[in-house]
Amino acid sequence: IRKDPSVLIVNPIKAFVGLIEIIGEAAKVASLSFRLFGNIFAGEVLLASMSAILAFGLPIPFMFLEIIVGLIQALIFAMLILAYLTMNTSAEEH
Known about the structure:
94 residues, 2 helices, mainly alpha
């Protein structure tokens, strides 16, 4: 501390930046989780409402649509996770 008094200022700032980084990483996970939950829930609500309108015949196309949307969601979810992992685990070269 006697040689470099700026250490008292820099270390709290680094701790605060580290805390913000942790919150940012948790926010990415929460964002993906809420997005996936919302899309699945919306599909189930759509199927339930179509089944309530007409129990036979009408929900069948929506069931196939829900299967296609589920496959696309799984692909997007996997690609986003891969992108986040690639950003976090890439080796820094100087």
